[in-house]
Amino acid sequence: VQLQASGGGLAQAGGSLRLSCVASSDIFKTKSVGWYRQAPGRQRELVATITATRTTHYEDFVKGRFTISRDNAKNTMYLQMNMLKPEDTAVYYCWLAVNNWGQGTLVTVSS
User: Fold this and answer.
1) What do you get for the CA distance between the two ends of the chain, in Å?
2) Sign of CA dihedral 88, 44, 71, 24
3) Once rounded to an integer, what is the mean pLDDT over residues 2-22?
4) Separation of alpha carbons 57 and 8, rounded Å
């Protein structure tokens, strides 16, 4: 399965960005998907996931600020990021269970 992420860029602290990730296969509809991120000098970490039945999970550091969603008709997942902080600066990777990864999209948040 190929995953194509987009939507990264530069935002100011307190601003918003929306990431998208399109999957190349309808297997998307049956799998859990999510977003991870990797900041410079740090390990890749989970941000949020959403199951095929739309149960969501968020790591504490994004709860109340980020929203994960999916559109199965478009084989697309989204990450709406609000109230961005400089520490959200990272390369964001979309993920499809069990071991499928997008190429990453850079998010930079300036203070």
Assistant:
1) 37
2) positive
3) 98
4) 21
